Amino acid sequence: EYKDMSKEHMMEIRRQNCNPMIMKVTYYKKPVFIHQGHMQWLWDVDGRRYLDLFAGVATVSVGHCHPKVTAAAEKQLRKLWHTTNIYVYSPLHEYVDKLAATLPEPLKVIYLTNSGSEANDLAMLMARLHTGNFDIITLRGSYHGGSPQTMGLTSNSAYKYPIAIGLGCHNTMCPDVFAGPWGGSHCRDSPIQTIRNCSCPQGLCMANDKYIGQLKEVFATSVPSRIAAFFGEPIMGVGGAVQYPKNFLKDTYKLVRERGGVCIADEVQTGFGRTGSHFWGFQGHDIMPDIVTMAKGIANGFPMGAVVTTHEIAASFGRGVHFNTFGGNPVACAIASSVLDEDGTQQISHEMGTYLLMGLSKIRDKYEIIGDVRGKGLQIGVEMVKDKASREPLPPAAMSEIFEDTKDMGVLIGKGGVYGQTFRIKPPMCITKDDADFFLAVFNQALNNYMERKIKSINCSK
Ligand code: PMP
């Protein structure tokens, strides 16, 4: 019988032998010591059960230790763990055939990697080789990886180091219709709009033109006339579920292509049905990327990533040898195949996501410290503010109190946004209405507790 190490022993090892940074991002004042997972649930070493609405950052897509996925892994582990993809073996071909079928023409050529950063590194390289250009544009607040190259795409200081990162990487203003300088109540593609007052004529989003204007300014000031690529997450992940004005991606893609660049959709968080209405986050925006990158949910938590592109781009890239030892590992492929076989997850994302968004928007209306509720499917953000009028971020200490309390009542959620001001809800795509109701009750209670403590402290200091 397997027994966990003692908590003290694990913390000591963490202090002595682990990446010191993980101590800082342990997130909770009282850490959670995980023992086991099943579907949407996690158990700690003391047997306490948590509803996991963060899913290892949108990674456990169909459920922790999903029985069918686990069975597929076990079956493959008994047959073949590894070989190099210079040989021909079934799991890889079964998988890429299935994955290609989920993507529209001309996105049909697949490269398998082991992580999202690796996929984005590869996509950067492809874009540069194919276009013969160097400069790449991303959105402020985005996250595209932590390798020295992708660190340049990522636009969040917390993840940057003082090295020669990001040569040729430029950011344009994040078209955030809640917290940004422009935006209002009818700009984005979401069941829930921001409650910010907007002077735009009804149905016409002027904010989009303003943010596109910022992109044009980047073209005019920061890059050569020809560029290699634009990288964009269909809905920001780490950046706090930011959604853009309706035509922003479409207009951006057009301008980028006019300058010789290719358009890259980073679907590391938004892929595989997470946005509910579509299987891929880019769908529904009237755009067609030239390259799509994916990871996280691709294999339900098993390390894997992929880049999908066109035959044309693959041909430009094919002039050199690209090799990756683990990319296309048979076990990873068998797992990823069984993830694709799992029916109904996109529907659950759509239904439960919409239900959660509706519930959260009611809670938003009750509390002065909730500024915005947004997202699509099970990619949801709740932006916390000092007050609705200022839209200024709720300070980290207050965020932590609500976050810790939510956890103590049995629900794990995430934090994000450039200022750590947004709660992130991106559960395994198997949650039920009861789970959603439980979370809504817990979150409401945590906010209530916070407000009561705040009122008490004001009264005491009088
Ligand atoms: N792109 C996005 C949108 C991500 O959220 C992440 C991870 N948070 C990455 C890329 C990098 O993926 P990985 O951590 O697997 O390298």
Could you walk me through the main structural features you see in this protein, from its secondary elements to its overall organization?
The protein has helices spanning 7-17, 20-24, 55-58, 67-79, 90-102, 116-131, 150-153, 206-221, 248-258, 311-317, 330-341, 345-366, 396-408, 433-461; strands at 34-38, 41-44, 49-52, 109-113, 136-139, 169-172, 229-232, 262-266, 291-294, 305-309, 370-376, 379-384, 411-412, 414-416, 422-425. β11 (370-376) and β12 (379-384) form a beta hairpin. By secondary structure, it is an alpha/beta fold. Helix content is 38%, strand content 14%. α5 packs parallel to α11, α8 (206-221) packs parallel to α9 and α13 crosses α14 (433-461). The strands form three sheets. A seven-stranded mixed β-sheet has the order 4-10-9-8-7-5-6, with helices on both faces. A four-stranded mixed β-sheet has the order 1-2-3-13. It contains 14 helices and 15 strands. 4'-deoxy-4'-aminopyridoxal-5'-phosphate binds next to α6. GO terms for molecular function: (R)-3-amino-2-methylpropionate-pyruvate transaminase activity; alanine-glyoxylate transaminase activity; beta-alanine:pyruvate transaminase activity; pyridoxal phosphate binding. It is an enzyme of class 2 (transferase).
